[in-house]
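Please check this:
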Amino acid sequence: MTTSENKRIARRAGTGLTALAAMACSAALAAPHAAAVPTGLSVNARTIYAACTYEITATFDHWFEAWFYDNGLVIAGSPIKPTNGKATIQWTPKKAGTHTLGVLSGSLWELKVDVLQPTLTGSATCGASPLGFLGS
């Protein structure tokens, strides 16, 4: 082989390797990945009152710890590690008004809820009947 033939073969090999590397990069960028993201957020009540305690449940496609927030402030008890794709935390809103609940684990999932001012005192507003002490 001559020197020019060796250079031509080397050039073809280099072009082939460059094309192979480009295909590998595009495949890696286009491949689906398991991102650490919440897939849902809910509260265990339709009507929410200030000073009552509720459960906030987030669903996940992973097991990473999750931070829960109320209007940007961390809810006590965070972070929580999901079990069987769910993480639940107790939440007691202090004031009436619109609250933005959030769960952060890789990315943020938010839910806006309206919190009402209690109209009655005691547990009756929070869902127990006024005669709850009598049992059911």
Notes: Confidence is low (pLDDT under 50) at residues 24-34, 129-136. The domain at 38-128 is CATH 2.60.40.10 (Immunoglobulin-like).
